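Form 7-S
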Amino acid sequence: MEQQQVRGRRRRNGVLQVQDGSEIRSLVENKEAFTRFVDDRFQKLDADGDGRLSVRELQPAVADIGAAIGLPARGSSPQADHIYAEVLNEFTQGKQDSVSKPEFQRVLSDILLGMAAGLKRDPIVILRINGEDLNEFVESPRYEPEAMAIFSQVGVGVGVGSDNNATPKLRQCLLAALGQLTVDHGMPPASDSWVMENVVEPALQELSANQLDQPVSQEVFFQEFRKFLGIMALRLQQHPVIVAHTENTFDGSGIRRLLSNKFELDKLLDSVWRDVPKEHKDKTSKEYLRIALDRIADSASLPPFGAVDQVDAVVNEAFKMAKADEMKAVDEAEFKKLLTEILGAIMLQLDGNPIGVSTNTVVHEPMSTSSALLSPTPLSPMVSSPSE
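Output:
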């Protein structure tokens, strides 16, 4: 199904690039090229030139890795900060205050291969939105029923205020309606500031200013929304927008595959148990179950905690059912048993109520960061910003 959707977008929107992780894997597996890559990055990060990277010198690398996997900036949320801390811990193993070049290369290799595996499972499609699909939607039989459904949603929502009986204004309805359109309609994210300033607002200015501030009926909305979208389609022809599109469905099938493979499951459980901090008599706190789940999330086809709110809610419920957030110390057998039960609970929830996630992000410039750890590399699509 997903491949059909990608092929459909290739036929309609211009697909500039599909990031499926193959280039990243090729880089890592080419030992000579990867060694040169690591030498260059290590030298840029090693500010004092002592041949080791301190925790402070590693911070730009951690920030770059977070950005590459789609995390918000550090400090923006506790969940994201937790993942950043885990990435840093991968380098330092929670004990060292600095790492050597071989250690840096080993961990970076593991992280990049993990990213490649994630992209293979959930590729990023770089689309060029040029107005053709939007114009096709406006002229198609789809327009009226979808516009009617959109008006029934936004026409009521935007009219709620101090006067609950107030009829919404046309301007409010048009802007709210854009939030209901996606790249499948040929519309880039209207919430993006560049799209708003260069596509949406100029299109609004071509409509009657007087009518925009008047109460709107369904008939007027149909007519003006069609005109509004047509103007934006012309704007997009003149100023195409580059959008990074991803979609995924979390249905528990990845967990089911993992739980059915006892050898792989036992290997993962052994690995996470070795890495969690131990208390006396080879026991650890239940609080480390969340860290352990994050470590095996990719193998279970789950997103990192904090990346998808709906999945986070399912995970939190599973932990609540297992009473896994208690600070009680448990031994190895109990720890592994609880982690397996949590996976099973998440699987059942997702199997009954799959969670579909789609993201569309406008790409304004090459995805690079201050330290340039991951740029220019296959992780950073070098695409042009929308033309002014």
